[in-house]
């Protein structure tokens, strides 16, 4: 499973600027592209403090939201791939 590989990785943020606008986080990536992230991606970005692993962030989501764990893992895989493609984060 892909999430098992991601779980112990630490997400590192790589963008120029961010701004919250209601539930939408607006990110200016290092390639100067502008992206609008939903509240789930915004919370993930906020929790990516350079110390927490993807698994740590998953635990915080599960504590806060009533969501199926496997569904959350699948959503994380898709979201992380998208954020990496947009050059908003990298994994270490």
Explain what the structure shows.
The chain is of the alpha+beta class and 92 residues long. It contains four helices and five strands; from the N terminus they run αββββαααβ. Strand 3 (24-29) and strand 4 form a beta hairpin. The chain is globular and about 35 Å long. The two termini are 18 Å apart.
In short:
The chain is an alpha+beta fold.
What characteristics describe this protein?
globular; alpha+beta; 46% helix; 92 residues; three-stranded antiparallel beta sheet; 5 strands; two-stranded antiparallel sheet; Outer Surface Protein A, domain 3; 4 helices
Q: What is the 3D form?
A: globular
Distance between the termini: 18 Å
Helix/strand order: HEEEEHHHE
Binned, the helix content reads 40-55%
Helix/strand-derived category reads: alpha+beta
**Strand order in space, largest sheet:** 2-3-4
Sheet with the most strands, sense and barrel status? 3 strands, antiparallel
Oligomer: single chain
Q: What is the CATH architecture assignment?
A: Alpha-Beta Complex
Radius of gyration, taken over Cα atoms and rounded to an integer in Å: 13 Å
Mean of all residue-level pLDDT scores: 92
CATH topology: Outer Surface Protein A, domain 3
